[in-house]
Design a protein that fits this description.
alpha+beta; Ribosomal Protein S8, Chain: A, domain 1; 2 domains; five-stranded antiparallel beta sheet; 4 helices; 28% helix; globular
């Protein structure tokens, strides 16, 4: 798998569209951090790491409100061939309303609102709504 971040986000979106209650994906550190950001922002119900032998998996539990998925869309911004970087001032216009952007800053991965508060820019990973 070349782009594990995109794969994780699309698996989560597809699981919502298929009305799954939970999914299990291969573990990787950045994937866990992205899942934790989605958990803090209210897109996921539960995130835990499950170890089976020498392999780890991320177990992600999904949330539905009135039988409708909480997460309805994902837009991958930075791709392996094209990276997108924004300064803190440019991030203010990046996501609107209920959208959440995930940004890789010099202080780690965080939601765009948190990066703006800390006046940090960085690579924009994706936008979720």
């Amino acid at each position: 798998m070349e782009d594990r971040v995109s794969d994780l986000l699309i698996r989560i979106k597809n699981a919502y569209l298929a009305r799954k209650k939970m999914i299990e994906v291969p573990y990787f550190k950045i994937g866990e951090k992205i899942a934790m950001i989605l958990f803090k922002e209210g897109f996921l119900k539960k995130v835990e790491v499950k170890k089976e032998g020498k392999f780890k998996n991320l177990v992600i539990e999904l949330i539905y409100q009135n039988k409708n998925p909480v997460l309805t869309g994902v837009k991958i911004i930075s791709k392996p061939g094209v990276r997108v970087y924004l300064k803190a001032k440019q991030l203010k216009n990046f996501s609107k309303g209920f959208e959440v952007g995930i940004v890789s800053t010099s202080r780690g991965l965080m939601a765009d609102k948190e990066a703006i508060k800390k006046n940090l820019g960085g690579e924009v990973i994706c936008k979720i709504w």
